[in-house]
Amino acid sequence: MSDIQEATNQLLDVNLHENWSSIQVTESGPRSESEHLQVTIGATVPTGFEQTAADEVREKLGSSCKISKDRGKIYFDISVESLAQVHCLRSVDNLFVVVKEFKDYQFKETKEEVLKDFEELAGKLPWSDPLKVWKINTNFKKKKTKRKKINQNTDSHILDYYENPAIKEEISTLVGDDLASYKDEKDESSKEETHPKMLKFRVTCNRAGEKHCFSSNEAARDFGGAVQDYFKWKADMTNFDVEVLLNIHDSEIVVGIALTEESLHRRNITHFGPTTLRSTLAYGMLRLCAPQPTDIIVDPMCGTGAIPIEGATEWSNCYHIAGDNNPLAVDRAANNISSLLTKSQIKEGEVSWGLPIDAVQWDICNLPLRTGTVDIIVTDMPFGKRMGSKKRNWNLYPACLREMSRVCRPGTGRAALLTQDKKCFTKALSGMGHVWRKVHTVWVNIGGLHAAVYLLKRTPQAFVHPSEQDGERTPW
Ligand SMILES: C[S@@+](CC[C@H](N)C(=O)[O-])C[C@H]1O[C@@H](n2cnc3c(N)ncnc32)[C@H](O)[C@@H]1O
């Protein structure tokens, strides 16, 4: 049997579990071949948080992870039974199943030769297991989407400017038949109801590295053409079933099949603001602080509440406080909390006891919190670009750090603070060595901006307010 026949037959043979849960339920019953599948999963994660994501994978799936040279990616092996758990990871943005990895791909000299090799590659790849996993994943997603449509009538209009990253690498997609009109598509979908479906696909090429003699567009076009010939699939850029990924980073090539259509970071938030933080980054920042049961965790500049909301869903044995001085931001955070509560009530089908979170309007420079009562502060400070101004940061940052040191528990308190205004932050921190110790810096890329997350530990030194020394102020 030829490779192609085998791949196609195996794809058709896949046990199309009507119900995803049956995959887990069959533990004691007879198992289909597909349930023993071992595959490598690739995940894109916020750059800088690769190690955090690898730790999460190890903790939740028991798999060890490989961190790619290509920043922002990790790889780990799973058996297909764990696929549902993979979708529950909090630190990953997008998931794909690896078809083949070439650690040191030897590119030929000329563009023509390289592109010819890409064409030949399509027919030589071990597609069958990754396609089985894709199929199982698709059925799982269909069920989820169906549930989501029933449960959600929220408008998730996205204003997230982090969604528009000025990434250096090129991203190109093989464009399907431009002539296919909307009418054709409608006819097609009604035809699909009566005839077996021909799969539609696209190839997306992500290329990073200086030394390539071809563009990502050319690679996607030629590799995509060969995939089309090999499988007899139909190319369609927008309405595709299968997205084949061709990730090229210097001499490393990974061919994969996407398992997520949109990034998994779009969870929890329904009311977006101008600087909404990715939930995956929020998770990474919280995780850096290692929350413990009963910890009080505060985001004093919460905006839409992405950080405390992620905290309340993942660390529900802690108490989370979200505050901001802008009433619009507090409203958005409150609306996000309320949407999440409604969603969880519908899901559980019963009255929920709520989430361990409150939203308050306050000024970070004068928090209505007792001295030394907060265990963890996690916040995303105004960069001085979209939010505030660099000039204002020179007053705001030292005042923030001082007030945070007052409310944070001496000796055990910790903080993860994100900013792009590193110069101002470093200067402000340099005058606070007696209350804050810098433990670690994670360099992150936020929508093309080079930013940093500073992990700080509160020193054991008690906070003394300057005016207290003159007996002018009574501590809370
Ligand atoms: C970068 S945004 C935070 C975005 C947030 N992480 C989110 O996901 O939407 C910074 C926030 O700091 C708030 N802020 C600025 N100055 C403040 C102050 N003095 N007190 C409290 N919040 C302040 C702004 O209103 C803004 O919402």
UniProtKB/TrEMBL annotation:
Protein name: THUMP domain containing 3
Organism this protein belongs to: Ursus maritimus (Polar bear)
Coiled coil stretches, renumbered: none
Transmembrane segments: none
InterPro entries: RlmKL-like_Mtase (IPR000241), RlmKL-like_Mtase_CS (IPR053943), SAM-dependent_MTases_sf (IPR029063), THUMP_dom (IPR004114)
Organism superkingdom: Eukaryota
Cross-referenced CDD domains: THUMP_AdoMetMT (cd11715)
Keywords assigned by UniProt, alphabetized: Acetylation, Cytoplasm, Methyltransferase, RNA-binding, Transferase, tRNA processing
Subcellular localization: Cytoplasm
UniProt KW Transferase keyword: yes
Family: Belongs to the methyltransferase superfamily.
SUPFAM superfamilies for the chain: S-adenosyl-L-methionine-dependent methyltransferases, THUMP domain-like
Boundaries of every THUMP domain copy: 143-259
PANTHER family on file: THUMP DOMAIN-CONTAINING, TRNA (GUANINE(6)-N2)-METHYLTRANSFERASE THUMP3
Keyword Cell membrane: no
GO molecular function: RNA binding; tRNA (guanine(6)-N2)-methyltransferase activity; tRNA (guanine(7)-N2)-methyltransferase activity
A Gene Ontology cellular-component term: cytosol
Major subcellular location class: cytoplasm
GO biological processes: tRNA methylation
